[in-house]
Amino acid sequence: MESALLGLLLLAWSLSRQVSAGMDSCIDDQGSLSRCLPKFENAAFNKTVMASNVCGLPPEDYCMQAGSTRSCHHCDASDPQRHHNVTYLTDFHSDEEPTWWQSQSMFYGVQHPRSVNLTLHLGKAFEITYIRLKFHTSRPESFAIYRRSKEGGPWLPYQYYSASCQKTYGKNAKGYIRPGEDERMALCTDEFSDISPLTGGNVAFSTLEGRPSAYNFDQSPVLQEWVTATDLLISLDRLNTFGDEFFKDPKVLRSYYYAISDFSVGGRCKCNGHASECLTRESGELVCTCQHHTDGADCQRCQPFYQDRPWARATADSANECRLCNCSGRTDACIFDAELYRSTGSGGRCASCRDNTDGPHCERCRENFYRNSPSDVCLPCNCSSLGSSSLQCENNGVCHCRQGVTGEKCEDCQPGFHSLGPAGCRPCECHPSGSAGVCSPLDGQCPCKTNVEGHTCGRCKPGSFNLASDNPAGCESCFCFGHSVACASSTRHSAISITSDFAEDPDGWTGEFSGGLEFPLIWKEGEVYLLPYSEDDIGFYKSPERFLGNQLLSYGQLLSIAFVAESLELLPRRVTVVLEASAVSVSIELSPEPSPRPVQAPRHTFTLRLHERDGGLRPSLSALEFRRLLFNLTALKISNAGGHNYTSQLSRVTLGSAAPSHSPYPPAPWVEECACPPGYAGQFCERCAPGYKREVPNGGPFVRCVPCTCNQHGDCHPDTGVCQCTGFTTGPACELCLDGYYGNALTGSSGNCQSCPCPEQTSCAQVPETGEVVCTNCPPGQRGTRCQICDDGFYGDPLGKFGIARPCTPCDCHGNVDPNAVGVCDNLTGRCLKCLYHTEGDHCQHCQQGYYGNALDQKANKCEPCSCNPAGTAGPIEDCHPHSGQCFCLSHVTGQYCGHCMAGYFNLSSGLGCERCNCNPIGSSSPACHPITGQCVCHPGVEGSSCDSCRKGFFGFSSRGCRACNCDPMGSITMQCHGNGTCTCREGFVGYKCDKCELNYFQSRATYQCEGCPVCYGLVRDQAEKLQLRLQSLEKLLARHSCRGRRGRQHQTLQGEDTLPNALEDFLAIQEAREAFVSQFTQLETSARTVAVQLRSIAMAMNCSREDNAVEWRRRACGAVAGPAAAVGTAQGQLRQAIHTLGSMVIPFEVQTGPNRWTTLVNESQALGKSHKEAASHIESIAKKALMASNQTFSLLMALLEDNSTEVHFRSLTEQLLEMHQAKVNLTAQANETLSEAKAACSSIQEDSAQIASALVNFTSSTLHLTNDSQSNLVWGQAELFLSQDLNNRTGELDLLVRSKDELVLKIQEELAPHVKSVEKHMETIQKYNQAHAKLSAQVQQTKAAALSSVVKGKGIESQSSGLMKDLEDMRTGWPSTLVQTKAIVKKERLVEEKILGDAKKKTKQAERIVKPALDNSTLSNTTASQAKTMTDTVTKEAKDARSQAKSAKNASAQLSSSVDTVLQQLEDQERSAVQMQTDTTNETEDTVGGMRENIEAAKLKLESHSVALSELLSKIEGDMANEKFERILRETETWLGFLRNSVESPVLSKKIQALHDAAQDQEAQLLQVDRDIAEIKEERRSLQDIVLHLPQGCTEGSKVGTL
């Protein structure tokens, strides 16, 4: 039956392969479209299955059928270890570790007719190839498979399985489908309904098996729909039983249930051959990635614009892709037309054709539309219905016009005609002066000029006059100075010309040059000319007065200018005319007018029309602005067109204008005559009428006229508007009475203003309601209608009404009243009535009750409230000292306001005061407590308000606090220990902290509990005892050198510290410190060597080696350099001596039983620190000397540069050397600035060096302080912690300081770089004239660079010093990893024992599981003789497989052997490390290392023995032996491999590796912290740089340096 099932699956798989062969791509090898299919997959994998029944709800017991026996178990749906939920149906299935879904048992009524349903939702349509169910129990007697072909569709039967097909499903068990029958019919079979096998039975359903059209699947829509499913339903209808359920035995009923271990569905995502994959959208919906221009979740339709043929499923012969519609590019939408497809073979009918096209493919134009070519857009003909004979036009869009009509669309009349109609077009009748062209062809309306109106453009618009043909606007706008829009041409003016022909003299014309300089013109008969002032100033011809002034009558007229010359070529081509007024000036360039006929003398005439519309005006003006210009023309200038060679002369200037006159002069129609509104007079409304004035006094004729406002007290001037007031009135409109008079001057009568009755004849006012006269200008401090009383804030009796007359005096309230308030004091006595700020008294001179302070103070809060605390005050809370504000406190209460308890007291109570703190002197660290709660400050591990008991989890109440119990949480019943620190252990746990398993117990990896050893423990006990004996010998060996009991000494207490680890740690710390000091001193010696080389370079650059140093400055500079060089040499020798001393120092290793030698070591450290300080101080002095040398060098250079001999020499040069002298001056200024910045930087560096030296002194003093407190290990630990913290802080400060100064030096160098380049550039220029000066400048640059290099090197030495201190900090941080390794060695034997025993137990269980199947197979082989040959073949095949497995095991063993060799190599490396350690430690350390070497050699021998055992096993495996030996050898191999793996997987090695990982992580964390510190330092550095940049100039300047 299993072989039949396998054949069924192979058939389904082969059919699916035939369908999908080569179909994973939508393009074939030739690049053509082809059918493509998604991958074949298990569609049910990891899908959620809905089950109508599952065991464990409620929890229940069930039994498994295993032949004649049953094994019972428990199912609980809420327990992850005991549930059998539906998630096990579609997860990854493994026969070795099967998982299964399980229903409730028959005990709960699960049996026919009650069905159990399993529903699988696939997410979209799939094409199903097979459905496979693997049952964990026996297969059901009856069950059925149903499907849905679409979402939400009905359930359709797929297949029935039943031993009673007819009875249960009404189907024939032997039925089949004949050709021609409905192939979607579900069949029933009894093949898979037997009760055997009891477990592991398979049921596989192939959807195409037995279907006649299966081999023609592509042409069978029925089968295509048959294999399509979106959901599957497994209906389990009847259980298979042995019939023993009849007796209702609960155990029997609990053994019958449904259980399925795997539910798989083979198929493909349905895409109809148009997609190669399915993807999940963001919404979670599974859809096909459609190709072939298809669309839909299953690619079941064509895309919207691919409708040229009907959609079809892709086949092996054709992709049946959807084709693009042919719409000539005129639309994006089409539909499929079956009739069109049958008739033309192209079924895409285009819809909504654009561009006015029509047809199935948008291939032609619509009616009454046209286009020139098929690629063009169809345009409407738009033929006129009146003017055209047909609405359809030609292909070029031209219409057929009627007679007398023109235009492409026959919509226009011919030019000069209008009003198209049945009778044709009528002729136009436009006025030639007012029209701008021919009339409109529609209605005959003539196009009028701007200021012209009328149908024929024959009249001016209102507000304009003088219709003229030469006026671009037709009529001129009325001007009338802006006061009227009604005007007409004047009949009282005639045209005149203002002319200068220069017949007798220059006629008042002059020449003008820049700056208003005037010169006379040169005259000769009929012409004048002007000689230029210079090449750049050729001047203007300036007109006389008759061309200036009010020239409004010339508006719109021509200004004509004529120039003559000897020949036509010499005449000017451009002339500039300038018109100026008081506040505006315009200019225009003129070109010569063409001459209509030849003239005798060469002449060019330039004309300008005085109108704002002339396009050449610069700037352009409005009409009003241009007339303002002509109204007060102050200058008319003509450019000197004669030029530099005087080639032409001004011969005539004519300006058209008008004058009041009559015939016989011709009229001047451009002059207006205005109709003025009321208030204006004159021909142009230029004057105000009598009784009117200018709105703006003296504003001129452009300002509006308004009526005079003198209130009948005089007349006004028409231009200024000033009134001539009478009757004691005054004001611009005579609206006020004179000072000393009162009345209403606005009434307009003569007696309006009368004299005031006030003293000293001051001003007054009359109250309108009562008519009372009130004085308005009383003397200061007086008020009243007659100034008879004192004002607010004053007191006295000015008129003596209450006795002797007293002047009004200001009240004295000491500033404690509101100066703006009314009635602040008595106006007779001066007593203050409204004291503020909590003051009181006749003069507000002291504070009120309940306030304190100084009422006479001028601050804001003079008197403040007492604010006494009612709980701590003895007496009224508003009572306090009037000056200090001190409240009167109860006992043990303090504070100005009696608000808190004294130190050692708490619980401030009202009326009682404070209670004394009740702190336990042993458990508390201070007698003081919390001032409110009374909580004392407890030692670590102590609790209670009085610090009188240990916290939970602590023990040992003492003056140092309580110690932590540290009970193991897994092995302890409670985390609280006994008084001696021992914990209460759970069953199976032992040890002080309950962290070990008892004998014959082991720690489970699953539960981390100590569990009893199983029965099988006896099988490996002998081997474990052997290993235990070897471990005991190893333990004895280690016991002699254990860190917990050296030389037989035991711990005094359970929590005591070990002596040897601390001593070893201190010894290694001293060793590493010595190496760090040697390294840092080596770096300092290298830096000193570098400084010495730089100083020698400076000396060589200055030629100090010459014996004839006759020059004073060179001798002084060389002496300044020689001193630092000698000091650096001395420091270098001292550093070498220090390195030699540290290298030869021998540090003994001893563990003191009594007082130790820490004092000696600290003294040595102090000596080293002192030498370090001296070296740093020496380096600092060297740097200072280098800076002094640099300053001296700069001073010498400045002295040389200040020598004025070069300057005297330069003064004697020619004028060409003036520029070089200026360059020298600039160079001097830049050098001075550079020198000032360098000195400021040097001064800052010196200050920083002093700070660093101070920090080193503090460090040394801290070290001395620590040496005095090194009497015990505990004190040493505290001192070491303090030293570490101090080193951390000072290292950070030094690092920040050094980096900030390094950045400052770099910044100074960057700022000096451009100045240096500028100096070099100027020196190269000067070198052309003075070679000796150039050489001196080069020496200056070299010396300056050397000095800067010295400064940089000095900063480098400072940086290295700070780096040395940082390395000391790194040495301190390395101690924790060493401590962890030491503790790991102590715990080695316990971890090894637990590891070996645990692995041995697991291997034993695995061996039992391996042996059991072999035993069953052997029994089955003996009882079944008929299958002997078959079993022999099977055994032979298994032997071959076993051999291949053995070979694999051999390879694994070889790899393991390689790993063993690697471990051995590592052990040898450790051995070499131990040898190296032996040479560096004392005799006691040699003993410890020797013991460790013996342990390593023992482990090595053990590994070698295991390797030999592996070799023997491999030699046995390579031989040809019986099948029984194979199993035994494999078991032995597995056992030895387990032992070897246990040996290799040493807990000690794991601990060491873990310690290395932890150390690496700590280092990474430290590096991250260093990076963060660096980032903070950089941020602070940037802040300091900003502060330095924004400091005042005086804060950073050094000594003054003279300028060259």
TrEMBL record:
Primary location class: secreted
Coiled coil: 1017-1044, 1319-1346, 1560-1587
BP-aspect Gene Ontology terms: animal organ morphogenesis; axon guidance; tissue development
Residues covered by the Laminin N-terminal domain: 32-268
Database matches in SUPFAM superfamilies: EGF/Laminin (SSF57196)
Classification via SMART domains: EGF (SM00181), EGF_Lam (SM00180), LamB (SM00281), LamNT (SM00136)
Domain of life: Eukaryota
Bridged cysteine pairs (disulfide): C381-C393, C401-C410, C448-C457, C725-C734, C835-C844, C889-C898, C917-C929, C919-C936, C938-C947, C965-C977, C985-C994
Signal sequence interval, chain numbering: 1-21
CDD domains listed in its UniProt record: EGF_Lam (cd00055)
Laminin EGF-like domain: residues covered: 381-427, 428-477, 708-755, 811-865, 866-916, 917-964, 965-1015
InterPro entries given in the database record: EGF (IPR000742), Laminin/Netrin_ECM (IPR050440), Laminin_IV (IPR000034), Laminin_N (IPR008211), LE_dom (IPR002049), LMN_ATRN_NET-like_EGF (IPR056863)
Keywords: Basement membrane, Coiled coil, Disulfide bond, Extracellular matrix, Glycoprotein, Laminin EGF-like domain, Repeat, Secreted, Signal
Subcellular location: Secreted, Extracellular space, Extracellular matrix, Basement membrane
Gene3D superfamilies according to UniProt: Galactose-binding domain-like, Laminin
Laminin IV type A domain boundaries: 504-673
Gene Ontology cellular-component terms listed: basement membrane; extracellular region
Job description of the protein: Binding to cells via a high affinity receptor, laminin is thought to mediate the attachment, migration and organization of cells into tissues during embryonic development by interacting with other extracellular matrix components.
PANTHER family xrefs: LAMININ SUBUNIT GAMMA-3, NETRIN/LAMININ-RELATED
Name by which UniProt lists this protein: Laminin subunit gamma-3
